[in-house]
Amino acid sequence: MKTPTIKDIAKLAGVSKGTVDRVIHKRGKVSKKAFEKVNTVLNEINYTPNLLARSLKNTKKYHICVVLPDFKEDLFWFPCNEGITEAVNEFTSFGVFIEPFFFNPTDIQSFIAVNKKVLKIAPDAVLLAPLFYKETLQIVEKYVDNNIIVSKFNNQLEIDATKNFVGQDLFKSGRIAASLLHMLIDKNSTVAIVHIDEDFNNSIPMQEKEKGFRNYFDQNKKTNHTIETFNFHQNNLTNKLDNLFKTSKNVSGVFVTTSKVYKIAAYLKKNKIEGIKVIGYDLLNENIKHLNDHIIDFLIHQNPKKQVYLGLTYLVEYFLFGKEIPEKSLLPIDIITSENLETYTVV
Fold it and tell me: What is the pTM of this model?
């Protein structure tokens, strides 16, 4: 009979691996319901602790660092912090130390400095949000030279030296946004692609989303839409939007490539501009508000919490159980409307 692993028991009991470990070793807090579920499974499989111990690769302690943008600067990253917390709660009892390091998402020097700090610590692995392309190439090379495993999440950069990527196909994400907008807008009208607070030339995610968006309209011969790209910064956003809607009278749709779509929606609402179809990203509270008010028509959910949690899980299972890490883990591209929003926000 195959030796049951913690993962096997957790799956049968419908709980986390960390919960199983706490029940077995009688440490940490476990709810009565979870305790009963785990013990029922343990009794059914006639479990003995020494069998489970053999499923561990070894007893070494592991250190994994997560390098990501500070959610205080950009709320898109807040769910990532929740994903880290969930992973910490689940894997600490296995001797895995997970430590987050935050950088300013608008400051390349902050990104460089934080990675230098992590490099000096010399962890076993780094889960990295590669926000800046050129700088990421350089830092990944240094990590690899120091035998530090690197996995990526959110931004799909083609870097051979990294172990894994967790996130969405951003090119396809852009195509999906285009197909949704195409169903809503007038024929032969103008569509605005809006990048907010991004260094477009050094941001592969923004480039991929725009490429996918334009590719859809390029391949659709039945349309004759004008696609225009705008790079805006928050410090002069209102003036830029005033100019956009005054000079481009025929704008019928706006595609915002980041979670800051609420800024466009707030402008449209304040200025009582109607008839503009808007698509953007992520379930920020402000975005949800404008989605429910029908100013934003669709949100594409990137599930940042799951990205981080899954990326960490792959690394932990590699270290503890010798499980192979997949090269790429693409998450579903979820389309959110005011009608199905509740199913994504219910805790």
Answer: 0.81
